Amino acid sequence: MQGADxxxxxxxxxxxxxxxxxxxKRFGETVAVDGISLDIRGGELLILIGGSGSGKTTTLxxxxxxxxxxxxxxxxxGIDTQTIDGIVLRKNIGYVIQQIGxxxxxxxxxxxxxxxxxxxxxxxxxxxxxxxxxxxVHLPPDQFMDRYxxxxxxxxxxxxxxxxxxxxxxxxxxxxxxxxxLDPLLRRQLxxxxxxxxxxxxxxxxxxxxxxxxxxxxxxxxxxMHEGRIVQIGTPxxxxxxxxxxxxxDLVGSDRLFEHIASLTxxxxxxxxSSIISGDLPVQSAIEVMIQSRSTVAVVRERAASFxxxxxxxxxxxxxxVKTVLEATDPPFFLSMDVSLLSALEEMKAASVxxxxxxxxxxxxxxxxxxxxxxxxV
Length: 378
Fold this sequence. Notes:
Helix 5 (123-136) crosses helix 7. A 6-stranded mixed beta sheet has the order 6-7-8-3-9-10, with helices on both faces. It has a 4-stranded antiparallel beta sheet with strand order 2-1-4-5, covered by helices on one side. Helices cover 37% and strands 25% of the residues. A hairpin with a 2-residue loop joins strand 9 (221-226) and strand 10 (229-234). It is built from 17 helices and 17 strands. The protein has 2 domains: 17-260, P-loop containing nucleotide triphosphate hydrolases (Rossmann fold, 3-Layer(aba) Sandwich), CATH 3.40.50.300; 266-372, CBS-domain, CATH 3.10.580.10. It is an alpha/beta fold. The chain has helices at residues 56-63, 86-91, 108-112, 114-118, 123-136, 141-144, 154-166, 184-201, 212-218, 236-241, 246-252, 254-259, 266-269, 283-292, 312-317, 341-351, 370-377; strands at residues 17-27, 30-41, 45-49, 71-76, 79-80, 93-97, 172-176, 204-209, 221-226, 229-234, 271-272, 276-278, 297-303, 306-311, 334-336, 356-360, 363-368.
């Protein structure tokens, strides 16, 4: 683990890893966090979920040093955060909370632009940045820049809070139940918007919630906390299919979810095979086709009745090693359209495969993606 120059304004430009090791925190006689260890991957949205007093918010606040641990260490890109000045660290980390904390006597322009003003940005730079962020969070700048917080609804204020957290373009964003105080319909709407914003901003995000449905909809991975400890961490699919104990099973609703998919078939939940490409297509051409069609998986036609599957991530990783897409494909796991969805998922789990190629009369009809399926069911 390295030290960092405490005079640095930007101790890190991007997040590769956040390593939390053996962290404990007490408040008097109460153990809030009890020796947790956790590796957060750069670019992911990690959910911390648990009941009241589980330690999730304390863990979040120890990442940006609003609270310092009593034991253990937290390192960002291998740099111990204790070697970074707390103010410098927090300037490099966006922070969104349920209460929002907008200054009532300042306009929306001034609230979002406060930190850039302190940092000496020009008026033109601030104006441009505030306008871009308001657009990002679906608030037209010409309508909202000069309003005051009291003139905004709760959902609009929460959007401004997110824009303010992003104003310095931090590589890391911490969010503590940001939608928790909103009514269910507005909460769902903001979740939908946030899913799109997440893809646009490309940040590493640690997100605290007590709502398992919100966790499933937003999270790449979910860490379940109880009494200051991490009980289980994994993707939504991991938690539903392989809960660590009865508490996790009850929280994620493993039994309840599978009750209402028992009558579905593969054709009910498959994703159409929107990208079918030729096996002799050059690598760069295939990448362009998949990006334009927004496909992370493509079906590759090798011969008249022979198919394989291609992951965009694999193709990007191996683009300098292979000449045609056929060299980067994976053998398909074939499924029939009319097979039971539950049976198909069980077969895929047994075969340790993450996608199935659904065939209809010898032609690709779609793809079954268990990870995507879980988010759609909840």
